[in-house]
Amino acid sequence: MPDDVEEFLAQRRYDEALERLLDRHEQQIYRMALLILRDAGLAEEATQEAFLKARRAFPRFDGRASVSTWLYTIARNTCLSALRRASRRRVTSLEDILEPAAPETPAADTELLRCVARLPESDRQVITLFYWEDRSVRDVARTLDLPEGTVKSQLHRARRALARMLEG
Amino acid sequence: MAELEDWEAQLDARLSRALPPPQLRPGFRQRLRRRIGQDTPRALWEGMPDLLHLSGGAVATLACAAVIPAAPSMTIATGVVATLATYVLMTAFRIALDDA
Q: How far is B44 from chain A (nearest CA, A)?
């Protein structure tokens, strides 16, 4: 059964297709941008740019990949271009983007965030996205363009590393 | 074993609390719609260099074919090749600038 976004695109109802894509993917794409760019302003700008590029490219969408795969490819490339442009700028630390849930977050959470920040880049991205995406391995795999098995093994490795750091 | 599972569940709960999902600022879609609205005239404007280059090349080629005392077909072929070659160079330069 074809995706309704693809139906909108086939009928050239581009504004409706964009709204549907925003409903489904804007937060995930923003989080991916935030992980790559580590700056909330740059991440929002890259998210806007990705949707703008997708909107411009709607007439050329050929359906060879699913719309979401196509959109994530555009978004990933947009983020990587933004990262290259921003490479000379200062980037914020991981603690800056991993905001505490509330001002009264206990000290133990800060300790945990420091441990997360010490993980290797790939494990840190996987475990952060896993909790940002409500524990969905599938969403993490799609966002990072990784097989689900790889995500699961990285999650396992990251949890073990965190356990060692917290005990040590 | 049960102790390990309990410990893992505690770590899981702590990670959930420590890593709340970041959200886009309110007004994201309004700002995006505004940019999309501005995009149509900008796309036309951005296409102007291409249009000017190609039409300028065509006019210059035809003028040369009329003025130069050589076979017009040769002059037109040279003009077309030169126009397309410089167009490719201009496009490559623009892509390099966009990526920089």
A: 12
